[in-house]
Amino acid sequence: MTKISEVLKKYNLTANRFEKKGKVTILDTDKGKYVYKEGRVDNKILIYLKSRNFDYMPNISQNEGYQMTRYIENLDIPDEQKIIDLVKLTALLHSKTTHYKEIDQNDYEEIYYSLDNNLKYLYSYYTDLITLIESKVFQSPSEQLLARNISKIYDAISENKKKLDKWRDLTKEKTKERNVILHGNLKLDHFIENEKSYLISWDKAKIGLPVFDIYKLYQNHALDFEFDSLLKIYEKSYPLTKDEKNLLYILISMPDIVEFKGTEYSKCKKISKTLDKIYKTEKIISPETSKE
């Protein structure tokens, strides 16, 4: 709290109340509410966003490893509407910051081998885990659940390897790629709606392929919303190229790692969630795959 006290003094503010909320602290002061957060946002990113007339973010004052912004009240809007608005704003962010650069095939090779190694690790991890489970005379409910469904996880790994190899072939002849400003951690907690929409928490913002933002959104909300309809809303404003969409499908098709930690109930819940995500991803991808 010492650093916050120093910040309050610097801005000539008197705090009446502190409220810790995740990684931020909400300061109720004599001059209104502020949000304090440790860490910095890349100034070059902020300047570039402003130059592209993307003003859907709070004014960030930062110094010496912290950020201060005015507190913005979040209106009570259904999550189903908010996620649509978030997707539309993401498409706008990508549209306003799109630029093309010459491809360095080494970058694509790095993506390929990174994902390939991930698939190999997943296969090895689940093989070791199921070998251990099958060696037991008595299996727990979570172990039985995984053993009965392990083939689904193996199938997902195998199919993803095929998609990855196809993506590699698809990108070999590319000479340019689209880059955008990525928010880096899209989720409803980082989206505020008031008199207009705001994206907050830009700490992980960087330049990269647009699909990485959509992938992060899927990671955070895969089982919360109908992602296929959200993807259509996004592509209505910002259509993905064939290789971009293929890469997105590869990313979202990666099975999660189920760690056997916690209570029996929590382990069963993790396994069920992993399987539900695999089935849901298949439903999104299958119609597109059948077209090919």
Counting H and I runs of at least 4 residues, what is the number of helices?
9
Query: Helix coverage percent of residues?
Result: 40-55%
As residue ranges, the low-confidence spans are: none
Structural class: alpha+beta
Query: CATH homologous superfamily name of the largest domain?
Result: Aminoglycoside phosphotransferase (APH), C-terminal lobe
The helix/strand series, from N terminus to C terminus, equals HEEEHEEHEHHEEEEHHHH
The rough form would be described as globular
State the name of the first-level CATH class of the largest domain.
Alpha Beta
Please give the radius of gyration in angstroms. Answer: 22 Å
Largest sheet: 5 strands, antiparallel
| Tally of separate domains | 2
Q: What is the residue-mean pLDDT, rounded to a whole number? A: 92
Major sheet: arrangement of strands: 1-2-3-5-4
Strand tally: 10
CATH topology of the largest domain, by name, is Aminoglycoside 3'-phosphotransferase, Chain: A, domain 2
The CATH level-2 architecture of the largest domain is identified as Alpha-Beta Complex
| Strand-residue proportion | 15-25%
How far apart lie the N and C ends?
57 Å
